[in-house]
Amino acid sequence: MLRITDARTGELVDAAPARRGLTRVEAHPRGLDPTGLRVLLAADLLVRALELGGTPVWALLAAERQPAELRAAADALGIRPFEDDEGAAGLGEAQVLHVVEERGAGPDGVRVAVAPVTWSAPGAPNEADQAALRLALLTHPRSAPVVIDADALARAGDTLARWRSAVADWARGPSRPVPDAVRAELRAAWEEDLDTAGVLGALRAVENDPELADGARFETYAYADRLLGLDLARDLGHPA
């Protein structure tokens, strides 16, 4: 079961205390900036992780400023659409999770805090490779401040290109199930406070494990990508 740190207390709480009960995830970005994008990304990850665990989720955007621009930026970053919270009366949800910027005032309820992002790369965030930006943000715990510079984007872009090419190659072999130990490691990482760095570390280990069949590598990456949202299977069917 997914557990998440409640910023009010610093304690881990169950993200969905009622099994199969509806959970509402509200994203509260203060504005259209890199930290606001990180808030949206954290909310997207919460929704994905809850759905992978079988929990129905209602995802809302609570933004007082630039909601249309935030939605467009979220779409470019591979974030699935949010519903508008205006007039939302609730659907009898068992839990409400508010994804907020660190040290900001937040509504009552469980608060999932996101540390700030400092943008030091050339150009504006919307001019960067959005998949590389997503991966660069996922590389760090959301509680840690992040500096996104040209080197961080280049490293993320190189990793994405390598993994997408590898996934396309692995797909040519016979399919094999995700090894039980690997599946358990992946779920243990993302169910413990959405540890995306741990998920990425597990994928690197799979990439370099000579004992794993290519089909198992492919299925592992496809499975993890349901959380990460990096479109790792994008190059399937392309000429080698």
UniProtKB/TrEMBL annotation:
Domain of life: Bacteria
Name this polypeptide is given: Cysteinyl-tRNA synthetase
Source species of the chain: Streptomyces sp. R02
